[in-house]
Input
Amino acid sequence: MDDITDRLQGSPEQARSGDRFVEGFAGYRKLQRRIASVARRGIAVPYFEPRDGVSGSTIHWHGRELINFSGYNYLSLSGHPEVSAAAKAAIDQYGTSASASRIVSGQISVHTELEECIASFLGTEDALVFVSGYLTNVTVISHLLSRPDAVIYDSAAHNSIITGGRLSGARVIEFEHGDFDGLDEVLRGSRNEFRRGLLVGEGVYSMDGTVLDLERALEIKNRHDLLLMIDEAHSIGTMGATGRGICEAAGVPASAVDVHMGTLSKTLAGCGGYIAGDRALIEYLRFLAPGFLFSVGLSPPDTAAALAAFKVLEREPERPQRLREKAKLFRKMAREYGLPIRGEEESPVASLVVGNGDTCLLLSQRLLEHGIHVQPIVYPAVAQDGARLRFFITLNHTEAQFKATIPVIAKEWERLPAATA
Ligand SMILES: Cc1ncc(COP(=O)(O)O)c(C=O)c1O
Output
């Protein structure tokens, strides 16, 4: 190595230690301490465990069948024969990848069919699909807003919304979960300090299972001249008489909301995200949103799977109502056993807040020993003292499964170490 190279790249020894530069990160060291402390308590790290089979009301794990509350296959459409067949047929026709960004040669006819289907399902002028739900929020929020603007979101907002807001360079205003009165007050004092304001809500909040008060959100939007974006990751297919989401549930026309966002990964049995809204919004994003333009087109099987999922949903519009009955039943039975399950009655996301992270991991592990699979959600996904078990209720859960699991959960809940619960 000559002198200049030596100065630029460091010595061979430094380069070698540079290979592991992350080991010096405070965040990495904290993670290692956390894993070690959990292990000392005899708790196995429950993440990244491969399962087998379709994520339904049961899954297979290390050769055992478990009752599963950890998958958001809400309407049981992932694994539905029609959806799987459509994905396979798309692979036969187009291959497994779109093989280019859509603006160049990645466009295939099912992309257009899916977008037309989303727009007609929601009652908007147009729609656009992206390769990930997370990316959809990040790229769209950060592209629609900039420095003189404000992105306004609930304290329970999904990380993709927060990240989109931060990357936009706009001012960020966070308000207490569901506290529209508090937000109203903040905006009365600050609305003239920013140009455009985008209020972002979630149809069903992913960590608490609470349902957005759309009427209040619209009132705030109109009073303070804001744009309104709703993330329907957990409400598309689950809320509204026929699963059209939060507008249908509230009896509000789709045009009242400026930006409809959703994911294809939950009810819609694929992977990806969508934005729906007026023609100009979609055209603007189609030609200019970086996360759309500089990324590959949605894969043929994911596109076809989501399209087939919509077709099943349209043909069987009672599925969402049946799911909500299951969610109500789960909550009713859980309450009978004294479990303080969070979220609205009909919401498919049901959280049991434990508080302490290690205690939450312990509860999850004990339930696993009983054949119940429910994932612990700990910091930083939720606050340090907000660790919880998050139960996803799906259409193919049965009353018998609830009867088999809820008393066990209640018994293990009672046994938790009091000091840390
Ligand atoms: C509210 C919300 N928005 C966006 C996303 C990201 O969606 P995806 O997982 O499809 O990328 C999620 C994922 O869980 C979510 O809960």
Q: What stands out?
A: The chain has a mean pLDDT of 94. The chain has two domains: 37-68+318-415, 81-315. The longest strand covers residues 349-355. The longest helix spans residues 319-336.
